[in-house]
Specification:
Four copies of one chain form a homotetramer. By secondary structure, chain A is α/β, with parallel strands linked by helices. The first copy, chain A, contains nine helices and 15 strands. The first copy, chain A, is globular and about 70 Å long.
């Protein structure tokens, strides 16, 4: 597509691609509505060998956050009871059992996560016209991640853009066009269908791990889809789009008129579910080895009441 | 079985049922080893209608904790960016997008969760002989939940003990015998097999919700399996046992000689994975309606490095 | 005074007692401006015996919060490094020293604290006309507690209302009039002066401790000053008012037209600093014993950037 | 002094300088016992002009931590209620008042703080022979900071080593000898007395602020006192030693045999209170201007039950 990315293009796409009202005025699921029960049954048939790939990333202090965006921090894992305490007899009276226990404190979007469709606003509105002001200090009033608690199941498809290009990873700033996605799917012998969980591999996360530092991964430049991708997602009727980057879309953005043009359309206008920071190395190697780029996908969020997203560990099962 | 529950019975069961070394000296998975790839393929065939049941509970300040055990607290959900802020223009310059964001702080076992098999010790040892002192303030050195990141998938079976008894819920202190489990499975026309994720419904959580208060749910009295259940789990070679209670086993315990006798055997000796505080109402109603008590189970933990467990939202798919 | 407490009285007092502009349009200190350097020098002369009274309360899980107001929680104290870990040799290599370490997580107003003067708004305005919207998710933009970092020093005066009445504690709902404060000061042989830190003892906290439960202490009913007290504080030109209750003013409030009428005047109109949940037992006993109800007061807040208050441990020195 | 710093010197000093039993077997205060009531009265006479200097540092995400030591993190300040929420009417019904509120989550030693004297162990012992294992996951059993709640008051003395040397700041690795401290005091026309809170200025923090980055400030190299300083502190009978660095003693340490040799003596053997990361710029400039290097010092800790220290904002009053 030939789009002059900027305010006008965002406004135009927001109108053309709007799913407001499409699934009723009360809808809180957006594109997850594209997944029908029969899709789940069909996806189950993709489980042929029993191999399970965990796409979640380690949640610990070595995570990708550097405080660039919104003061997010890496997961803080603290122990509430420890082995040395236990062995020293500290718990023998109370509670009368030797154990260890712990707590986790993290922004829900600090590491691998789903964005809830209430995460990004268009002016004062969320998806389906909900008032953005309802996302107050008590949490996302209407479009929290809890509504998706049993909806992140279906057919998964890997589009391994990096491998398709014959590189270890795309460079920051490299955009991915709709045509490339189509060609990539063709090469992988896989058709994108209504209700798919489409997962793009850019290799960026693997580059960070190979270099031993996250740098500006979270909130910085990245390879990713071009703005036009919003039309592709709507046309394909996919359930969700996921990547191994921080924010799916290419950065620097294709315009300086506004920040994150693609986000502004796909979330508040379309209600597209988005998965970020997926760990794809093992899955991609397996797909390359057996030539099968489709699988059963199960990526349930935690049921965080009013959450703007959820840390996750999705499973790709072949 | 006719067991005189106490220190001696725990010691005897710990020895008879020990899985130390069974899957190699380095094994960090315990009974999850019972699940073979072919079991997962077979379980996929149980997905016949595409219905998905989320077994996770809402994570918010209304959770079940009351600080009785180890000072656990209910999930603390705080916003890092809000809708009213955005609408007031507070983010228009930095970061240049209207959004909301949030963080979650909770003990990993505060609500619905898996126990890692390093969670409970036998004196100074964990499952497979690992030194309990390695579970120090930096986290579970060897048996953390991260090792199970792609292993919580397989066949799920619901044993609806409450419905089988014809009651809404079992009372606190009511024990469940091995015979009852067998009879319950028979009535449900379901066979317990190697590698199963067995889920017991006592109705206790539904009672708390019906009464509008958690009371001593977390850490207090409860219906649950009798001590003899450790023999049943080992004999059946199940992958995991899960319930809608705080701690699976009956409380008050069957002995006053030691706290949580069943835990002391199934975790450090057997390496049994345990799931607690599962929300089973909807699944149970559906199983009752269609008479099918088996399903595809996918309950991935978060990849918490060194975690003693993980909050979860397992999916039962029929 | 004879005030018909309600919306009209609040509006009238807000206008009559407004200190907006009194100390310049940029002022972020409010009534703390009443303390002059010479007052501090004079107050130093009250240090005659070297006795020091800590007015802070223990910060731990047994604190006064019950989640009634704004989802505040009791202080969560977690260890980052422990003695048993150290003795087990877990830190001998890294970091190479045996130590213990810990973290504290708490709402700044969960226990004894100062309110920053930006804590309460009048419609869309804070003290001195600052826009309430500047208190966004990044913190109190203009009237944060950090501005007071070296201003909480001066003369302290205890008005022991409970002892003056001859009771152990005032009952919830009992109001304290301006006349009573004057009489109480007279009996204590102490004059209220410009720049004083006035501390009222109702005994409510001591009642909770005696009864072994906080109950609805935080956010519930309480003894406290009547609405007319705002006139008294302004007239006396005090620096701050402090009590052993959750919120200084009497609850149930003297009106059902609006919540917390006194707060609405003294904070956004007057810029009065307020200290809450002070532990006064020992200080009060000493004042009773020596008959001296004035002392040097030093109650520095933590320098929490943009904080709506700060946990504190003020010192009364005689 | 001519000390060959290493294991042997630490062992020797630990024995020679031990204060175990000096103030009774139950003592939990260590060198704070050196402060007598009459010292506080005398110190009050140093309040001559009413100038107050806050020595605390801003508690926010821009703090000095980088995770080098024990995974400490910078203060996390999150809002629980905000101005834009209030102005949008979100709190008009519940709780019925327009306000903002917030929470703070930080390691107690993340920024400016006191070390409790139970913070560092000698093998399996704390100061006064307390068992280090009592500092378990529930907190410092015996030597927590709460015991000092009313003991951080007395005479403060600034030894401005940087200014004395005529430099803006000492370089990392530069040691400060006992002789230099004596000469510096002489030049400042101030005598070090029993019970003093001695504050050393190296300028390191000001260098970090001038350079706009903390770098390895927390846990890295630093100027500081030489090992021999433990003898000086004991000889002078000071109450506490404080600096503008992360850990008072010079780093790299004077030996590679063990980490932090000075800490190992002054805390577990002597029970010396230590203050770290003090902000000294303004106080130092004032002392330079008026030539008066002594003042009233009031640095109360928060009453953190079982805390290994406390964030603070000490006040120097002249």
């Amino acid at each position: 597509m030939n789009i002059n990315v900027g305010r006008k293009a965002v406004a135009e796409a927001s109108e053309k691609l709007s799913n407001h009202g499409r699934w009723g005025g009360d809808d809180r699921l957006g594109t997850l509505n594209h997944v029908l029960p029969e899709d789940i049954v069909r996806a189950a048939a993709l489980i042929r060998t029993g191999k399970v790939f965990a796409l979640g990333m380690p949640l610990d202090r070595h995570g990708p956050q550097n405080g660039l965006f919104g003061g997010r921090w890496n997961p803080i894992h603290t122990m509430l009871a420890t082995g040395p305490d236990a062995v020293a007899g500290r718990y023998d009276k109370i509670p009368g059992i030797r154990y260890c226990d712990d707590a986790l404190n993290m922004p829900v979007q600090a590491a691998q996560h789903w964005d809830a469709i209430g995460h990004i606003f268009n002016d004062d509105k969320m998806y389906n016209g909900f008032d953005a002001r309802e996302a107050d200090s008590n949490g996302l009033g209407n479009l929290g991640i809890e509504h998706t608690k049993n909806r992140m199941v279906g057919r998964g498809v890997l589009l391994d853009v990096a491998r398709f290009r014959g590189v270890d990873w795309l460079k920051d700033g490299e955009g991915i066009s709709n045509d490339e996605l189509d060609t990539c799917a063709k090469e992988a012998n896989v058709e994108i269908r209504r209700g798919d969980f489409v997962i793009l591999r850019t290799g960026q996360m693997e580059r960070c791990l190979a270099e031993g530092k996250w740098g500006a991964y979270a909130g910085g430049d990245a390879p990713g889809v071009r703005f036009e991708n919003c039309y592709w997602c709507q046309d394909k009727q996919i359930a969700a789009i996921c990547t191994d980057t921080w924010g799916v879309e290419v950065r620097p953005n294709e315009t300086s008129e506004l920040n994150q043009p693609w986000h502004r359309v796909v979330i508040p206008a379309m209600g597209l579910t988005m998965g970020e920071m997926f760990c794809l190395k093992e899955l991609a190697e397996d797909c390359d080895a057996d030539g099968i780029y489709e699988f059963f996908f199960c990526g349930a969020p935690l049921v965080i009441t009013g959450g703007t997203g959820s840390p996750i560990n999705p499973q790709a099962i072949k």
